[in-house]
């Protein structure tokens, strides 16, 4: 087993659409360095595993093609089924690739209670939960448009309540406030 298969820190990011999860994941990665740290996406392995199980072209499922649209609904159902059988299924897949050899993981897209529980249960001492918060008007300036069926679904609202976040990062366009949040997080990572 590789020395870093057990990470030193697992930074679990959650936030609404266009709150800045990807943006902040990149900032954290930049601060910690790619030698030590990697971004792991929970949404990535779903398509990969679906393609594998159904003998489909993974690359074509990733782009904005008709091909993907043909399978979208079935892929969503398949994902739900897998998660119902095994809530940690996609979390486990996301942490089984080369990136997970790094000693610090940034999970950039936790969406459900079961995602947070998975990492807290499996990496109890290393897990740090982070909520990225942006006001609705700021999110709208970044292109957010409320979409029924997405923004009122579990995948968007599952973590609105019920988690005692270790850190809440405010990402409302004030650089100092954002830096303060990230600095506080990095202090926890190194403590
Ligand atoms: N502090 C910031 N300064 C400048 N641009 C920002 C900042 N935060 C976010 N953005 C920009 O806002 C847009 C949305 O951010 P991002 O993609 O990180 O959000 P997200 O939470 O990952 O969204 P989604 O859930 O839709 O993937 C991006 O273009 C990003 O570059």
From TrEMBL:
One of its GO terms (molecular function) is phosphomevalonate kinase activity. The keyword Isomerase does not apply. Its EC number is 2.7.4.2. SUPFAM superfamilies: P-loop containing nucleoside triphosphate hydrolases. One of its GO terms (biological process) is cholesterol biosynthetic process. GO terms for cellular component: cytosol. Coiled coil: none annotated. Keywords: ATP-binding, Cholesterol biosynthesis, Cholesterol metabolism, Cytoplasm, Kinase, Lipid biosynthesis, Lipid metabolism, Nucleotide-binding, Steroid biosynthesis, Steroid metabolism, Sterol biosynthesis, Sterol metabolism, Transferase. ATP binds at residues 16-22, 142, 171. It is found in: Cytoplasm, Cytosol. Signal peptide: none annotated. It is an enzyme of class 2 (transferase). Pathway: Isoprenoid biosynthesis; isopentenyl diphosphate biosynthesis via mevalonate pathway; isopentenyl diphosphate from (R)-mevalonate: step 2/3. NCBIfam families: Pmev_kin_anim. PANTHER family: PHOSPHOMEVALONATE KINASE (PTHR13101:SF1). This is Phosphomevalonate kinase. The lineage of its organism: Eukaryota, Metazoa, Spiralia, Lophotrochozoa, Mollusca.
